[in-house]
Amino acid sequence: MIATPQDVERALKASIVGQDAAIEGLLLAAIADGHALLEGPPGIAKTLACRALAASLDATFKRIQFTPDLLPADIVGTRIFDQQRARFDTVLGPIVANIVLADEINRAPAKVQSALLEAMQERQVTIGPESHALPDPFIVLATMNPLDNDGTYALPLAQMDRFLLKIDIGYPSVEEELEIIERYAFAQTPLPQTVATLDDVRRWRAEARAIHVDRKLHRYIVELVAATRQASPYVLGGASPRASLALVNCARARALLHGRDYVEPDDIRSVAPAVLRHRIAFTHRLVLEGISPSSWIERTILGVPVP
Amino acid sequence: MQSVRAQNLPRLTVERFTFSAKPVSPKMGRPFSLRIVLVVRGYVRRIDNVTLPILSQLALRGDERTITHAHGTSTYRETLRVRANRTGTIDLAPATLDAVDARTGQAEQYSSNPLHIVVRGGMLQPFASADSAVGSLLPVLERIALLGVGALALAFALALTTAYLLLHRRRPPEIVAPPVPLPLEPEPGPTQTRNERLRDAALVLRAEPTRSVVRSVRVAVRALVGASAHETLADVLARLPDIDRDLVPLLRALERAAFTTDEDLANAIQTCLRAFAEVKE
Q: Is the complex ipTM higher than 0.95?
């Protein structure tokens, strides 16, 4: 039986209580061949969601805890001298995996972040004279904690732009938290069974690329992105054309996830906040006036007429 | 007349069912009328299930339906204002009506006559098609004659008007209501019910099953449920009142037809038409 993205979605929802939006975001990143940034307070199943995605796809999974003393070689790999054979051997770092969880990416200094982001862009790492291709699929899921910012290194906007999506993960509802207690208070959270393979993921990507997007929807996407660039006392810089491309790809991925071979305006509207929220530079006035970036983006999106 | 399945069909005694064009040979680009006349015995308040043929070769400009009653019969008249955008012949299939024959109690499908329309070219065409010197002069003479007749008619009308004004100059001026033209675009009147508007939308879509018409119909149906230009389908469905819940399949079908692939468009439109038919009366 051919596995579908919906099979993976069901498997993830069976092991993670609530967080449906985060699960959908992770699947969109996998289908659209992109990387995702997960932001939320500690203890809300960010790491579990990434592990569960890897388990359901039978993908290799590595977790890197980013710390202030981390070095680029610690993630990319290094050359170690073999005394017996009198030569340098290359030891690849934990970045060589299908799904890499970069936990608390903003805790590492800029040069480590750059090494990771370069690998994300180039899909290869270079150690000494040798270049090594990263496996396909290669998905980086980076987490950030929005509350505990002491001793962190903020990611520059240009580097944030490399992430296809920024998924905001919030606290579960009361009912969901009750269910978490009942299910997992005395038991280890189980990882889902493998329901798809990496070949399936590559097939979904090809299918998503073939999904029809009407010209009116192309225009809608451009108008949404252009709306973030309009002069506003709250915005220093709007989203780039890369955001428009990301919107098309994510909307296609969502259409596939919903079993359609064409994109609807709802696909675009649904993915737009996650695609745009980390690509806009806001002024301090937004914070001073108590407006959250997400609500500004929501309002801006709602102001654009739907085709 | 063919037998059809009886499902809540009206009981009618059909006496006449005709389909005609006026003028019979219209000009390209000029609006003309298609008329359906259905005469049934007895007093019938409304007839809803006259099905029009596909009018894909004509641009629909307006639609008006009336029922009149006289001498123990009811006469349903439907006038479609249409326009042909190409010359040549257009063959229209008969209009049909599903009803139970009141005389026999059997469900029947009644058909009108089919229609054969010859669309003529514009004013310059006779000159272009003339193949002799005399032939080329004839249309010119015809035009001159037409102009002369027109001038005479104008002079006569002016004389009549002057005489009328002289005779009636002491009377208070009468307010003459301007003639009510057929609406160029079908606009729902304030008295139209939701289902009447849906029926009109279905009629337009059936007559011209194209992407642009689907989009217009989608806008009309969304307006019917109070959707704003800034709302997606999910927004609309999230706040749809219970009374309009029966429109959910239709709204979904229209969304699909508006944005699906060209290959799937025909199927998507059929789904829309089925969804129209399933809306609660």
A: no
Give chain B's contact residues with A (Cβ, < 8 Å). Answer: 229-234, 255-256, 258-261, 264
Kindly report the average pLDDT of chain B as a whole number: 78
**Host domain of residue A296:** 210-307
| A residues 211..230 contacting B (CB < 8 A) | 212, 214, 216-217
Exposure class string for B200-216: b at 16+ Cβ within 10 A, else e: bbbbbbbbbbebebbbb
CATH code where residue A136 lies:
3.40.50.300
Looking at the complex, report in whole angstroms how far the Cα of residue A303 sits from the nearest Cα belonging to chain B. Answer: 7
Say whether both A22 and A78 belong to one domain. yes
- Cβ-Cβ contacts under 8 Å, B257 against chain A: none
- Closest residue in A to B232 (Cα) is A266
Residue A153: pLDDT over 50: yes
Same domain, A108 and A231: no
Residue B132 · residue B38 · CB < 8 Å: no
Q: What CATH number should be reported for the domain holding residue A234?
A: 1.10.8.80
| pLDDT tens digits along B27-82 | 888 888 999 999 998 888 888 778 777 777 787 778 888 888 888 888 989 888 88
B26-48 burial code (b ≥16 CB/10 A, e <16): bbeeebbbbebbbbbeeebeebe
Top-confidence residue, B116 or A227: A227
* 8 Å CB contact of B259 and A264: yes
User: Using CA atoms, how far apart are residues B205 and A87, in angstroms rounded to an integer?
Assistant: 77
- Which of chain A's residues have a Cβ under 8 Å away from the Cβ of B232? 264-266, 269, 306
Query: For chain A, how many structural domains are there in total?
Result: 2
Instruction: Inform me whether the pLDDT recorded for A102 exceeds 80.
Output: yes
Q: CA-CA distance, A223 to A188, in Å (whole number)?
A: 47
A219 in the same domain as A157: no
pLDDT at A15 over 90: no
Are residues A173 and A32 located together in one domain of the fold? yes
Residues of A in contact with B233 (CB under 8 A): 264-266
From the candidates A212, A213, A217, A264, which should be mutated to test the interface with B, based on the most B CB atoms within 10 A? A264
Q: Which of B211, B232, B233 to mutate: most A Cβ within 10 Å?
A: B232
pLDDT of B18 > 80? The answer is yes
| Position B112 pLDDT exceeds 90 | no
Check whether B179 has a pLDDT greater than 60. Answer: no
Rounded to whole angstroms, how far apart are CA atoms A267 and A217? 10
A212: closest chain B residue by CA: B261
